[in-house]
């Protein structure tokens, strides 16, 4: 046994402790690659998400925040919200402030708009602001 063995063993135990304590942070129930296309430019990224927890990303170059939430009981459905610096953005079809997409679909392409939210049963036609692209992967 060399003089270095106890030190290596201690380092290995320390690394194992870090991995075990942060295990939840290393695990993910699903991941998503996303892109946003607007007249002002494009941005993209990816997220690793857990069921029952909101996960999100800031797309600072475009002034957007994307959030996703999948509940364990309906884990194939993911609720999507897109927020903009401009308070009139972002709405989806029929002036909805959120949409639900099927995570099992290979690729989702969603139009989003700026204007005003839906009020009661009134149909609101807003101005097209861009397109959100989503690709989900199960873990």
**Helix-strand string:** HHEEEEEEEEE
Instruction: Round the Cα radius of gyration to an integer and report it.
Output: 20 Å
- Helix run count: 2
Q: What's the rounded overall pLDDT mean?
A: 82
Helix percent reads 10-25%
Task: Give the distance, in angstroms, between the N- and C-terminal Cα atoms.
Answer: 41 Å
The coarse overall form would be: globular
Major sheet, described briefly?
5 strands, antiparallel
Domains counted in the coordinates: how many? Answer: 1
Measured by DSSP, the beta-strand proportion falls in: over 45%
**Unreliable runs, pLDDT <50, ≥5 residues?**
8-26
Structural class: alpha+beta
Strand order of the largest sheet: 2-1-9-8-6
The total of beta strands comes to 9
Describe the model.
- The protein is α+β, with helices and mostly antiparallel strands.
- The protein has one domain (28-138).
- The chain contains 2 helices and 9 strands; from the N terminus they run H-H-E-E-E-E-E-E-E-E-E.
- It has helices spanning 5-21, 23-26; strands spanning 30-38, 41-49, 55-59, 64-69, 77-84, 89-91, 99-102, 108-114, 127-138.
- The strands form 2 sheets. Strands 2-1-9-8-6 form a 5-stranded antiparallel β-sheet, with no helix packed on it. Strands 3-4-5-7 form a 4-stranded antiparallel β-sheet, with no helix packed on it.
- The termini are far apart.
- The model is unreliable at 8-26 (pLDDT under 50).
């Amino acid at each position: 046994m060399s003089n270095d063995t106890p030190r290596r063993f201690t380092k290995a135990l320390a690394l194992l402790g870090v991995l075990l304590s942060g295990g939840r942070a290393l695990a993910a129930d699903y991941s998503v690659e996303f892109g946003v296309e607007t007249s002002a430019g494009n941005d993209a990224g990816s997220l690793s998400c857990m069921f029952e927890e909101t996960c999100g990303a800031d797309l600072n170059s475009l002034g957007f925040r994307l959030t996703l939430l999948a509940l364990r009981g309906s884990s194939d459905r993911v609720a999507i919200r897109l927020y903009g610096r401009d308070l009139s953005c972002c709405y989806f079809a029929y002036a909805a402030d959120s949409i639900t997409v099927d995570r099992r679909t290979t690729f989702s392409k969603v139009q989003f708009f700026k204007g005003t939210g839906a009020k009661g049963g009134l149909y609101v036609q807003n101005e097209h602001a861009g397109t959100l692209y989503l690709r989900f992967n199960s873990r």
